[in-house]
Please model this.
Amino acid sequence: MHRFADYVASLLATVSGSAGRSDARLRAAVRTRVTEIVETGQTSSSSDIAPDVIAYTDTIARGAFRVTDEHVDRLRRAGFSDDQIFDVTVNAAVSAGLSRLDRALRLLHGGN
Model:
């Protein structure tokens, strides 16, 4: 991501930083899973992620416009606070966006 590298690094450091309300391992697993989905259309991650989080983040990865109130309500019922849901949402959305940007830049420069 040549000219964007510093911005991307700063964004990732902020999103994945220790100030989050959700567990850092969960945020990292979400980023890995979403990146795999965007890159390959599937995931190889066997997951320690709760099924409701998987459903939510997979929806974000494949098309965030498909997220419904029911997704969020399921996370709340599973014991996630709004701050934790926000952390998961931001990590999934940033990962999806950066993966798409990286893929687009590779294609523009003749890569796969």
Summary: The radius of gyration is 14 Å.
